[in-house]
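User: Diphthine synthase. Structure?
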Amino acid sequence: MLTFIGLGLYDADSITCEGRNALREADRVFAEFYTSTLLGATVADLEAAHDIDIEVRDRAGVEQDPEAILAAAETEDVAFLTAGDTMISTTHSDLRIRAEARGIETRVLHGVTAETAASGLTGLQNYRFGKAVTLPFPFVHGAGDVPPSVIESIEANQERGLHTLVYLDIKVDYHKRRGGPDLEDPYMTASHAAELLAAEWDDDALAVVVARAGSPEPLVAADRLSALADREFGEPLHLLVIPGDLHHVEADALAVLADAPAELVDIDE
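Assistant: Predicted structure:
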């Protein structure tokens, strides 16, 4: 059995009760934290909280050489952990398909993900979101500061009146794996993301920062991209939302929950 378990957004307590029970019953536990991570808990914290040993795999050890995981799951009850929801953004469908092809039974135990948290914290309605994008660090793709595909996706959503969720890049140990620079901060900040988008897309556009979703003290702030670029939003993880057309309830929510300037959300002062 191979059970995919989402750990939620922040710490050892963010997992669901169902996920916690399955984790504690597993014979062997693997995890990856290269696509996202829990900023409120280390691997040691997770091991202590759930009384388990965790074998952390890098990208190659999951996507290119998953044999250790699959071989264990053929004879044991194996748990595979990711931050957030194990099949949303941190997608491991390939690993699940490989397991099923080998006759290994699989199941998915979902966790809270940034996608739903962004909607819940900002007050933007979840069914009014279009295609999500990931904004990478400029050194990763070598195609200018913002890949054209990111701007194209935002503009396509805007044309349909839809909101865009912008995931921000994480490059922990990138320099060790790929020869990239040794980053002082491997987590892209919302201010850096706003600066990039303001310079290459629209500095006057309304955007919403969500910082530390799932933590005891999340932060939500809405303003023009140019204004957000000059602010500090504290510890990671951060993400951005580029709103599309606003329902009047959404406009009220951004004004009340994110201190959006009235002129940006068409609310009379």
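The chain has a mean pLDDT of 91. Residues 165 and 241 are 5 Å apart (CA to CA).
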